């Protein structure tokens, strides 16, 4: 029997890899003869790099780059097991948690370090990129990244502007002539579940600016600057990009990647394809997935729903194990054979989070016993 375990993280308690390994241990205890494969899932945010390196037996590259506030930081990127694909997680080079709460101001943060990591990976011979956009502290539209890659954004004095959000209004000319020459050989697959356009009330500044520390006035200025910047880039490239779904992801970084010819895809899809999840599922007898909280919103593109969709394609049953089941979770039964909460007694949320691993193990073990008994009775 083959069991594929593909959970997302249980945020605040277990990474996707930890959750997957915990479920695997429970199944191996009850079904020692089974083939159990763990493929941690992610949606392009925190944990994307770890999930892909684990699934593909990839390599972590520790390095130094520019952080969100312009300081030099220790960070990393990854190389998948194919030896050809670089993985960069936005949250590890310009993530919101990297900026102290009292210093959060997206007019002053930058994506420059992301461009530096791309340069490093290109110089290492890599030409395929997967970039997870979740959890950014920035709102510069990819200005900093593009500058690090060689693009020029000039003010009225012909000087390259600072690579930060407040510079967007100052740009009067754009020049991509000196972009890294090897970029033409590169492909970028962008993992993001954000479908917002770049500008306007549904754009990057208005929707995501407040959580990054922007005031109402800063939001207005950032959005006006973003429109100025985007119009100039589109004019220079002779293409329309700012209203493509996902252009507003990560403070407009999605737009910056679109300017490089990138493809923005569902984060779950990118991770699943890179990890070869579908090939494992088509041979599986059961699929186990999970997340920290499951409710009706799980049906709107979250990783467990994507996993269940792949399994349904091959007639394989999927079981959902979550930290908790919330409003509308009954709707999930149309896509999952059964849905389970790991909480086995009345307890405060803090206790459930603190004991997530043993609770998950116990729940998974019970499910493994049921599957094992059912298989023996056939």
Automatic annotation (TrEMBL):
InterPro entries: Glyc_kinase_flavodox-like_fold, Glycerate_kinase, Glycerate_kinase_RE-like, Glycerate_kinase_sf. Keywords: Kinase, Transferase. Signal peptide: none annotated. Transmembrane segments: none annotated. Pfam families: Gly_kinase (PF02595). GO terms for molecular function: glycerate kinase activity. The keyword Acyltransferase does not apply. The keyword Transferase applies. Gene3D superfamilies: Glycerate kinase, domain 1, Glycerate kinase, domain 2. One of its GO terms (biological process) is organic acid phosphorylation. Belongs to the glycerate kinase type-1 family. This is Glycerate kinase. It comes from Pontibacter diazotrophicus.
């Amino acid at each position: 029997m083959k069991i594929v375990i593909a959970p997302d993280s249980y945020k605040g308690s277990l990474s996707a890899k930890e959750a997957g390994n915990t479920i695997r241990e429970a199944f191996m205890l009850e079904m020692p003869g089974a083939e159990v494969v763990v493929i941690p899932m992610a949606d392009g945010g925190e944990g994307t790099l770890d999930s892909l390196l684990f699934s593909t037996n990839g390599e972590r590259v520790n390095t130094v780059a520019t952080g969100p506030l312009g300081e030099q930081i220790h960070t990393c990127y990854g190389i998948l097991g194919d030896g050809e694909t670089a993985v960069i997680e936005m949250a590890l080079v310009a993530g919101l948690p990297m900026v102290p709460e009292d210093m959060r101001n997206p007019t002053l943060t930058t994506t420059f370090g992301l461009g530096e990591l791309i340069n490093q990976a290109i110089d290492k011979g890599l030409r395929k990129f997967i970039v997870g956009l979740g959890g950014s502290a920035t709102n510069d539209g990819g200005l900093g990244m593009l500058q690090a890659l060689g693009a020029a954004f000039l003010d009225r004095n012909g000087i390259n502007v600072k690579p930060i959000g407040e510079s967007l209004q100052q740009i009067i000319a754009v020049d991509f002539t000196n972009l890294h020459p090897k970029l033409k050989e590169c492909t970028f697959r962008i993992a993001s579940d954000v479908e917002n356009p770049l500008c306007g009330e549904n754009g990057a500044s208005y929707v995501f600016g407040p959580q990054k520390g922007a005031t109402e006035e800063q939001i207005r200025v950032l959005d006006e600057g973003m429109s100025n910047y985007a119009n100039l880039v589109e004019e220079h490239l002779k293409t329309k990009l700012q209203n493509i779904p996902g252009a507003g992801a990560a403070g407009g970084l999605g737009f910056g990647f679109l300017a490089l010819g990138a493809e923005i895809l569902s984060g779950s899809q990118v991770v699943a394809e890179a990890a070869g999840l579908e090939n494992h599922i088509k041979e599986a007898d059961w699929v186990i997935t999970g997340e920290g909280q499951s409710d009706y919103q799980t049906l709107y593109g979250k990783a467990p729903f994507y996993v269940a969709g792949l399994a349904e394609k091959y007639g394989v049953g999927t079981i959902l194990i979550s930290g908790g089941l919330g409003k509308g979770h009954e709707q999930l039964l149309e896509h999952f054979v059964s849905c389970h909460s790991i909480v086995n007694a009345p307890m405060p949320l803090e206790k459930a989070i603190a004991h997530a691993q043993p609770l998950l193990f116990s729940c998974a073990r019970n499910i493994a016993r049921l599957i094992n008994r059912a298989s023996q009775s056939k």
